[in-house]
Structures are given as structure tokens and as C-alpha cells.
Amino acid sequence: MILENLKEAAKDPILSLSTACRQDTNPNKVDLGIGVYRDDQGITPVMEAIKIAEKRLLQEQSTKAYIGLAGNEAFNQVMIDLMLGDSSSKQRAVGIQTPGASGALRMLADVIKASTPDATVWLSDLSYANHAPIMKTAGLKVRYFPYFDPETKRVQTDAMMTCLQDAGANDAVLLHGCCHNPTGADLPFEGWERVTDMSIKQGFLPFIDIAYQGFGDGMEEDVRGFRYLAERVESYVLTGSCSKHFGLYRERTGIAVVAAKTLEQSNRVKTRIVEAARSSYTMPPDHGAALVEIILNDDMLKANWLAEVESMRLRIEGLRHKLVATLRGKSGSSHYDFIAQHKGMFSVLGMTPEEEKILREKYAIYLVGGGRINIAGMQERQIDYIAQSILSL
Ligand SMILES: Cc1ncc(COP(=O)(O)O)c(C=O)c1O
């Protein structure tokens, strides 16, 4: 009978780690696992501009009636503006609001599958833990290209490009727009130039995922490589998340963007994304997108929001430098200097599973398998303890 033979699902490695940390009674425990930004008190704050926008929304919203299938179109436009800036490809870009970037990844995967049933999506090795499951559940094949060099802790651009020579017109290549999750190693600008040329020559579809705009070098700087590509390739697809830079994690606010050869083609693809959405969740939740629309359409609120994102970015950058300086001071070695070169919330330190186990069981320091630490989850007072523990391995 239906349901009887179902086995229990495997536990989500990141979320179960977070639960284990919550239950740990060690007073020194540090949760560097789950990917949320925290301030120096360990709190993931509701941003000031969001609070103001929420008040305004509460006063002004007059209905909770359904919104269109593509969600809030004004939100779609401001998000396209934020990610694309003045990029000429904006004229052929269309968006649909989705439940987080996760929803966008799945809707775009569904549309790729509908268009090219035997398509392969290429992922960086390593990549965001949910990329492969989402692509595979949509029925797409997944292949990996070399990305993170465990020795140098940087991107192996040459090896990546050599491998991607196998990607052709039935393939999509998924790139993190900035602040690569989990490694923290971003594709250098020259890498974006090379991928752009290869896409033009080989015909693969660039699939860009932007989840941390503003957390690396700045709101505009972080999308320089992506915009270079967007202006030159024939078509691309893009996902955007408001979980991190608007702190709207639980509001599930994201966007899927398509820029095909012409606006007419993009609009045709949009009808297929809408169709995919209709047969799964139908419409995205409204609240988060309504707030983003208010903020990005109001100069004062936007300036307030940009300043807060910048302060978050500077905090993360400061933590990176403090951790490196402490590790250097205690060990006299420059082994961990790469942490300061990485961008965004995460860095992969390259520990073995045994070392991760020691950190967890002996020091109550929780990090994601593969040695990913969430820099944005640290508090300054914990840095000494974290550095000492790492160096004891
Ligand atoms: C690279 C990347 N893409 C997408 C997502 C999904 O974000 P959202 O919360 O908008 O679904 C994340 C979340 O951590 C991410 O790191």
C-alpha cells in the first residue's frame, strides 16, 4: 500500500548539526555550521529598513487577495535592477518571484528539463549542498568541474576551463555570482571573461546563482564578473536570494530571471516558468517581496539598507582578518592567511572528518562537513578559542 514501504529520509547534515549544537551544554560551544549571518551578540537581526517597511506595509496594505502567478512584478523589476545595474542585457531580462532562490533554482531546472530533456548541469566541485539535489530531482544530469584547489584554497581556473571544454549546447554551467558557498573562493574576473568566451563559442547556458550580493567586496563590485558575462552571452538564467542581504530568510523571498536572445523569447520562457510554478506552489509568499519593493523604491530606505549591508560586510571582513591575525600570532605560520582572501560568509579550511569530529566533540565547535566554517557566525570574543582549538589539531 502507498506509504508503507517508505524509508526515513536521511537527515539534512547542516540542519541536524545545528540541532546538535543547540543541545550541547558546553558553555564555550560555537555554531559555525548553519549559513545565517549573526551579529556580535549571536543574533540574526531584523534589518532596520525591513522594520520600517513592515510598519508602512501594515498601515497601507489593503488586501491579502492573490497576487499574480509571477508574484510581485514591481519586486521583480527592482531585483533585476539591483543585480543587473545598467547592464544592456536588462532589456531582454524578465523575472518571476519565487519562494527563495531555492524555488528559483528548481523552477529554472524544470524549465531546462522541459526545453532539453537530456540536459546536463555542471556544478563546481564543491558547490552549495542543495544544488545537486535540486537539479537531480528536476531530472537533470549533474557533472562537476574542478573549482576549489584544496592546496592553494583558491579557484583552479585553468583546470576548470579545461574541463568545461566538454560543455556544449545541451549543457548549463552553474556559477555562483559571488561569495562562493561553501568555499569562499570566488572566480577571478579573468575567469568570468574566459567562461563568457566559452559560452559564446560552445553554446552552453550560463546559470548564475546570486545569494550573497554585497557580502564580498560591495553591492556593485560583487556582480562585476556576472554583469560582464550577462552583457555578452546570447542567453543566461539567474537566481537571486533576499535571505541574506535583506535578512529575510524565513520569508522565502527570491527571484528567477531569464535573459534569452530577445525579450520576446524571454517572455516565452517566462510563461513556462509560471507554468512550472503553477503546478507546484502556484504563487510565492508576498510579505518579503513587498518589503523589498518598498525599500528599493524609496531612496532613504534604500540608503539605510545599503549602509546596513555594508556594515555586515565590514564585520565579516574584520572577523576574517582577526581570525587570520590570531592564527598567525599563535602559530607563527601564514598557513591560514587564505581566510582573509576569501569572500562572503564561508571559508573551507580543509579539515579531515576526524579533525572536524575532534572540534565538535572536544571543543564543541560545530562546522559543516568538508571543513566549511561560517565566518559570519563568529563572535569576536570566540576568536581566540576557535584559533586555539584549530591549532591544537
Ligand atoms: C549559493 C546559494 N544559493 C541558493 C541558496 C538558497 O537561498 P534561499 O534561502 O533564497 O532559498 C543558498 C542558501 O544558502 C545559497 O547559499
| Small molecules bound in the structure, each named once | pyridoxal-5'-phosphate
Gyration radius (Cα, Å) is 21 Å
Oligomer status: single chain
Q: So how many helices?
A: 14
The helix/strand series, from N terminus to C terminus, equals: HEHHEHEHEHEHEHEEHHHHEHEEH
What is the percentage of strand-forming residues?
A: 5-15%
Estimate the global geometry from the Cα principal axes: globular
CATH level 1 name of the largest domain: Alpha Beta
State the helicity in percent bands.
Answer: 40-55%
How are the strands of the biggest sheet laid out side by side? 2-8-7-6-5-3-4
Write down the overall mean pLDDT.
Answer: 96
Provide the CATH architecture of the largest domain.
3-Layer(aba) Sandwich
**Count of DSSP strands:** 11
The CATH fourth-level homologous superfamily of the largest domain = Type I PLP-dependent aspartate aminotransferase-like (Major domain)
Question: How would the blueprint of this fold be written?
Answer:
Elements: H1 13-23, E1 30-31, H2 48-60, H3 73-84, E2 93-98, H4 100-115, E3 120-125, H5 131-137, E4 141-146, H6 157-164, E5 171-176, H7 189-202, E6 205-210, H8 224-232, E7 236-241, E8 254-259, H9 263-278, H10 287-296, H11 299-331, H12 338-341, E9 346-348, H13 353-363, E10 365-366, E11 372-374, H14 383-391
Parallel strand pairs: 1-10, 3-4, 3-5, 5-6, 6-7
Antiparallel strand pairs: 2-8, 7-8, 9-11
Bound molecules: pyridoxal-5'-phosphate.
